[in-house]
Amino acid sequence: MPLQRILAGMAPRFLRSPKFLSSRAVVHSNRSLVLLPFFTLVVMTVVVIMLFPLLALLNSNYMMEADRAELPAVVLPPCAAAYFRANYERSLRETPADERHAAHLRHIGVDHVYVVHYTPLRYRRGNMTAMLRAHGVHAEWVLGFDKEELNTSTDSCFHYYDPQQLTGPKARRYNTRGLFPRPLGPAQRSVLIKHFSAYYDAYQHNYQTILVLEDDALLRLGFVKRLDEVLRTTPSGYDAIFIGGCMRFYAWRRKTQTEYITKHIYRKQASRCAHAFILSQAGVRKLLRSLPLTEAIDFQMNVAMREENMTVYWVEPWLSVQGQFGEPTCVTKTDIKNAGSCRFSTQQRYSRSFDLRYLNETEVLERWENVPPFRHHR
Fold first, then answer.
1. What tens digit of pLDDT does each residue of 49-81 get?
2. Structural contact between residues 154 and 193, judged by C-beta atoms closer than 8 angstroms
3. Of 282, 209, 276, which is closest to residue 249 (Cα–Cα)?
4. Whole-Å CA distances, 205 to 179, 184, 212, 238, 349
5. CB–CB of 213/114 below 8 Å?
6. Which of 32, 200, 229, 309 is 20 to 30 A removed from 158 (C-alpha atoms)?
7. Residues 6+ positions from 127 with CB-CB distance below 8 Å
8. Are residues 187 and 66 in the same domain?
């Protein structure tokens, strides 16, 4: 006999009477009515929790599309879009997926990192990779469009020189060209298209913030930490932030078109070299809108900044400089070990001790904290 029946038989007679059982049913019914709202609330809460990720995803997609609608529209020549797309497909074939997916610094707000690279210089890629690894940075290498691959077809697509084809602010370019009155050389055209190939990739993926480096960039000790501070303190709505420097282009000593924001951030209206800089999605689009490519890369940026009224900032002190062109051991020895043996470009007038200031932690911190005061008068 089941245990329940034995226990039921042992219960007093009045507990087994129909009257008592009916009263229990009424109490149970009333209790159910009391608990019904509670159970309903629990069920609704569970449903909301289950649907929340889906609602968040739909909302993020909506906001992304809204942001896209507010950004400058990009209309590329069909040939340029086709070239960029073909190079992107080539990059997918030649770049391991894990390398591409790791090319970001999202913990500080950078969605993707690109390195513009001249493919035949294999030693430079090896040295640059070692330096980036020392800084904890992974990057996607921008391949293709080497100068040996360019031809009359790419020239007619990217570099046409017919003023009658340009309208609006672009038509003024040919009245003001003084630095490069002749067509660009193969190396200049190659690095130009490589840069814009990276911008196109960022545009297609809707990356909100990208870091662009050239393959001869030398990074200061504590690069990622300083870059994080720069991104947190730069006013929102920027198009470009030039974190690298060259020659004697110091923001704190150049009063023309310079606005002091902080001792590290200065508002400018021009580029400062092109070996290390940050772009927003709006900046990416504005640069792409500057086609055709009529100037060297940094001057092409200046053209876009003037025509698109871009919001530009410079960082002091520099987080990066360029190594001497053609020196195969410069990047590795400068940024990792034995820095004294690496020379800098004589045109940039850097002493041998300059690279030591990029390696010594005490020197780096001192120079970061003690930026020369902003000169209000020349």
1. 777 656 554 554 444 444 455 888 888 889 999
2. yes
3. 276
4. 34, 30, 15, 19, 40
5. yes
6. 309
7. 328, 329, 330, 331, 332
8. no
